[in-house]
Amino acid sequence: MEKATFAGGCFWCMVTPFEELPGIHGIVSGYTGGTTENPTYEEIKTGTTGHYEAVQITFDPDIFPYEKLLELYWPQIDPTDADGQFQDRGPQYRTAIFYHNEAQQAAALISKEQVAGSGRFTGPIVTEIIPAVTFYEAEEYHQDYHHKNPKHYKEDREQSGRDPFIAKHWGQ
To answer: Is 13 a catalytic site residue?
Structure first.
């Protein structure tokens, strides 16, 4: 098993694309990249801890290669927005790929170049590719939020503007 860690704005919206796929053994919402140890959501949402909201995926690379995870990741985000994602603004909602080994780093860099060269976007691709650091699991109520609170999740996602952006730029 390997881990993959992706930040793409609100972590609730980053769980569903990776769910129930062969070779995916777990998806955890959490916080990474900051300076506060064991941060809480209340601390994260201030935008002052340096953390990103992120998901950490446990996967079997023989069944679901890392490159396929990257193919699913990019169409979930606006890779040109350095100030957050959709309605979620602030440094905690920036996009990033946190690589866990050199092979992941190389694959992430290639995929970023492919997105940049795709012609989908006029601005630069600002999604960072950075080494994975300590990942802190978010509070229990954030885990599988879309299953626990489907009505609120659906309303929040609709208000975010994420889906129209995805449809326009990624054709999905």
So the answer is: no
Q: Does residue 159 register a pLDDT over 80?
A: yes
Q: Is the pTM of this model over 0.90?
A: yes
- The residue with tokens 């659906």 is 154
| Three-class DSSP category at 9 | coil
The answer to whether residue 172 scores a pLDDT higher than 80 is: no
- What is the residue-wise DSSP string for 65-104? -HHHHHHHHGGGS-TT-TTEETTEESGGG-EEEEESSHHH
- The token duo for 46 is 């201030």
Residue from 61, 56, 70, 60 nearest 27 by CA: 56
Query: Which is catalytic among the residues 2, 4, 5, 10?
Result: 10
Question: pLDDT tens digit string along 18-27?
Answer: 998 999 999 9
Structural tokens at position 112? 């970023």
The answer to whether residues 135 and 96 touch, using CB atoms and an 8 Å cutoff, is: no
Which neighbouring-strand residues pair with 136? 31
